[in-house]
Write a structure and sequence with these properties.
The protein is α+β, with helices and mostly antiparallel strands and 129 residues long. The chain has helices at 23-38, 43-50, 121-124, and strands spanning 2-7, 53-63, 72-82, 86-95, 98-110. The chain contains 3 helices and 5 strands, in the order E-H-H-E-E-E-E-H.
Length: 129
């Protein structure tokens, strides 16, 4: 399981200090990017070396409790299933070890023409299920 920490800044909130709902998707996106980096890759290198681009095909999420200004959050990401050109992740957000947002995200690997592409073996070999 991969963990990514972030803090809620003023720009993430409405005038009442509550996180705008779409920003949770940004937080889990940052966690996915950080996961790829922690595995020893970058999105730019995957693009240049393999013409590999990960896109969200489907996301299911549940907003359990609102985050607020200056909250410190932990995003936990784990692989649920890995296929040749796609993988499914569970990404949950916690505040003070309490679940406040849960999601399942289906990622598909495509080339620059938008066609499905096998995930590079070098990356597959470091994915953990």
């Amino acid at each position: 399981m991969h963990k990514f920490k972030t803090k809620i800044y003023y720009e993430d909130t409405d005038s009442g200090g509550v996180v705008y709902y779409a920003n949770y998707l940004k937080f889990i996106e940052r966690a996915r990017t950080n996961l790829i980096q922690d595995l020893g890759f970058s999105l730019q290198s995957l693009s240049k070396e393999y013409d590999s681009h990960f896109v969200v095909k489907n996301i299911r999420c549940n907003y359990i409790q609102s985050a607020k200004l200056e909250d410190e959050l932990s995003i936990e990401t784990q692989f649920l299933e890995i296929k040749k050109a796609s993988f499914e992740l569970e990404q949950n957000i916690y505040r003070d070890n309490k679940l406040i947002f849960e999601s399942k995200v289906l990622m598909v690997n495509i080339n620059s023409q938008g066609k499905p592409l096998k995930i590079p073996n070098s990356l597959l070999s470091v994915f953990n299920v």
